[in-house]
Amino acid sequence: NFIRSKNDKILLTVPVNRSGFLKKKINDIKIDYSTNWNEKHLKSIKLCYQNKEYFDLYFHQIEEIYNKRHKLLSDLNYDLLIFFLKKIGIDTKIVKASDYNFKGKKSDLVLDMCLKLNFNKYIFGEQGRKYVKEDDFKIKGVRVAYQKYIHPKYSQGYPNFIPNLSVLDLIFNYGNKSLEILNNSQNKFIFNQ
């Protein structure tokens, strides 16, 4: 994910143990702590956002998540997801794919997930059009939609808005008003009948 500095964006990456990682399931990928990447992340976040209105409200909680030293990348991602959803004010049930026995790849996998979770609608990103087998979804009674994502613009405290940053940028700038910004975006959902 990217965060915003005064003049540019900075990439934050979590190193993983690369041995055979391309053949592993996401929930089996281990984080590599041979460098102090987590300390570097926290320093970068602090330098970029310490003067933002909501920094003091959230930074120490984010620091606690980083300091847990999660063994698995999926566990770090899960804790961060739950934190951000809660702080933004999104209340939804989260399930882990690893708790289910989903089968297939690409379109077949998504359809299997919908059927096993009793979903009758699924929203793909625009790129989903390239691989979704719409007829299979229609036969099974699952409506398909595609989201045309238009990034909401908000003040980042600097000239020249930079899109596609981490949600950190939004919550440090807007705190509990973040959901309002997301809800006011121009995103379109186009359902196929």
Describe it:
By secondary structure, the chain is of the alpha+beta class. The protein is built from 7 helices and 5 strands; from the N terminus they run ββααααβαβααβ. β3, α5 and β4 form a beta-alpha-beta unit. The protein is globular.
Concise summary:
This protein is an alpha+beta fold.
List keywords for this structure.
single chain; 193 residues; alpha+beta; 3-stranded mixed beta sheet; two-stranded antiparallel ribbon; 5 strands; 38% helix
What is the residue-averaged pLDDT? 92
Q: DSSP strand (E) fraction? A: 5-15%
Largest β sheet strand count, sense and barrel closure: 3 strands, mixed
Shape estimate: globular
**Separation, N- and C-terminal Cα atoms:** 35 Å
Rg, Cα atoms, Å: 19 Å
Topology:
Elements: E1 2-4, E2 9-11, H1 37-49, H2 55-67, H3 73-88, H4 106-116, E3 121-125, H5 134-139, E4 143-148, H6 167-174, H7 178-183, E5 188-191
Parallel strand pairs: 3-4
Antiparallel strand pairs: 1-2, 4-5
